[in-house]
């Protein structure tokens, strides 16, 4: 009787349950690949070895990012130490430069899905060709052939390796023989690799054989968690040691066949029997933590794996970006980029005539929009084309070899950041670009894909999830089909056109809750769909007149009008159903004395509510008020009655003698009373004055500083 054939996606899911202690003793040729990685097609190892000019075993030492000549794309130059040469020519001790796409320059970051990223300390086999990125020439620079599939990533804790479609259970002589059989060149060792040698020794002499007590994980809490949300996992056990080591989770980007270590700053406490750690979506290798077993690696490189029978689940993963100077990670939010509430995607001239593709994209976009109130729109065709930092959210098919080999498509996100008064950095998504391979057999729908096709709507729904600022997860698989849109794998014939409410939708909703709040710096925040502009409010004859505008309303949406005396505690005034109109009004006949704040809650058909940014009105008084006064802490709150939205409000602090102590330029998100915050410079106790100027009006507000 033949052995049962498991669906490829189920096979990938089962891999996540295996402990590395069960790995066989040696590795021969790599196992056959399945087509289950996110928007990647398996690359034949023989083809890869033939296409590469240079094949080396190397370790990343340092990185430096840079703009291309057109200032549209960011690249990263990685400096590596070469240990072994498997193809081509390389001088011993000569540093190697490998250029990868994406990176961070100043306060601008750029990330690409399904694309190789390297991190200091990583090592593995690299299959390289001379770098040929347009406008990004670097002397003697190389690039990985086929991007992610041009890197076989080593695990120097266990002396294993993996790539997107293959795993290598031991980095022994058989592994290298299999590689040199493909490259056709004898291996040359250019420098010793001490980390790998130590890992091989540990495999040959387990802890028990060396008389060392191995660490043990006995439990952990909670069992299910959100990655990238500062959620803390508490791990219990024994033998962890008193010196901090590392905690490593299954890598959700590859389905958990590899582990990814948390950044050192995410280890909150460490003792011999208890560890507390934040579960990241941006690890030390910029990967998200995924479901499955995790492991603790002690300071002396002993390893404990969590019990297979105690499942650990990452429900969803919120995208984080890292500030390069401090290493601190932040969640990124959305803004009102298009002036109509959010973002507009524009197809290029080649994709625009494909009505079926645009219809599939529109269905996927509406799915996210109606479930999470993400303010997205599909606009008219653009005249130009190209992916990059140009303020346009591009939607296009690639031309020629714009996409690396065997990549079906990817999303490029460009982020900007600014420093808030409290010292934190606010990052926002400046631009979202999507590009798909025009040579793929796509099913554009609404029919279902054949077994040889990729469903375009399924792929777009997933990539829009990345645009929503969600990372990959490792999802349950039923009947060979993953149950979550943000599952790391998409296969031929797969049909996943519905969002999972408890995982996909709630993940997007969590991003939205942070995006619709007013930012303390930077551009105006996103308006929850279907709103196209901030709520307008004005006082007239003792009444507050409110109005708002919408577009592309979803079925079952309603608006809740709310009022507050302090923008903190809210009371519902009315429920206004959507009618398909583009303009709505409401009158509050009895506003509060002093300042009244108003806001809209967009209520979705699925029961979720999204609050829009509040706006205030007041009968009379100064244009700008400050509190607390006297000031006692590092922050000062401003209540500014603005005639219009502006990014030109300047505030400066002077003492009684007219000496200048510092100032800031603030963004005013909307007309009406806005609540803003500034960080005070170092001040002694005494009397000061805040001078303000918005380009039209100006004034002064005295305040007292007390210790």
What are the salient characteristics of this protein?
single chain, 707 residues, mainly beta, OB fold (Dihydrolipoamide Acetyltransferase, E2P), Immunoglobulin-like, Collagenase (Catalytic Domain), nine-stranded mixed β-sheet, 47 strands, globular, disordered N terminus
Describe it.
Strands 4, 5, 22, 23, 24, 25, 26, 27 and 28 form a nine-stranded mixed β-sheet that branches. A five-stranded mixed beta barrel has the order 1-2-3-7-6. Strands 35, 36, 38, 39 and 40 form a five-stranded antiparallel β-sheet that branches. With 707 residues, it is mainly beta. It has seven helices and 47 strands. The radius of gyration is 28 Å and the shape is globular. The N and C termini lie far apart (84 Å). The model is unreliable at 1-35 (pLDDT under 50). It has five domains: 8-204, OB fold (Dihydrolipoamide Acetyltransferase, E2P); 216-317, Sandwich (Immunoglobulin-like); 333-515, Collagenase (Catalytic Domain); 536-616, Immunoglobulin-like (Sandwich); 624-705, Immunoglobulin-like (Sandwich), CATH 2.60.40.3080. Helix 5 packs across helix 6 (456-467). It is 12% helix and 39% strand. Strand 4 (103-105) and strand 5 (108-112) form a beta hairpin. This is T9SS type A sorting domain-containing protein. Residues 215-309 form the IPT/TIG domain. Pfam families: TIG.
Quick synopsis:
With 707 residues, the protein is mainly beta. Strands 4, 5, 22, 23, 24, 25, 26, 27 and 28 form a nine-stranded mixed β-sheet that branches. The model is unreliable at 1-35 (pLDDT under 50).
